Amino acid sequence: MNAYTQQYQQNQILSASPEQILVMLYDGAIRFVRQAVAGIENNDLTAKLEGISRCMAIITEFANTLDHEIGGEIAENLDGLYSFMIRELTQANLKNDVDKLRVVEGLLLDLRETWVSAIEVARNEVAASDSAAADAAEPTPTQTKMPPNYKPLSAAG
Description:
Blueprint: H1 3-14, H2 18-41, H3 45-64, H4 68-95, H5 98-137, H6 153-156
């Protein structure tokens, strides 16, 4: 990777919202699982180990950042799912099991899609809320109290 590519990627991360970073992490985890699959299929031990290791690091970070107080049952379910994925990755590593990697890849793809949808819903709700607030802030003629003897210029003539 050349210096320009590294700088571009670093700028993307530094300017990304937390939601964008979450999606980028899912993209990375999916890419690393696929790297591990290719490593097993091509008898490339380094690619397999690097892919599994990096994917595990991302999933572990997902698990570590769960807020069980705010997230409640959803956080608990995600924690269980992340633990399952770590176990599957460990078994895939020990047994060179591509099927276990494919299971993890499918789960990551589903979770990524769910997060992207949730982010979009949240953005739409914020936009609708902002629009409603802007509408409420700008009074319409019927909302504006006029003096009793006020006549618009068009009606005065």
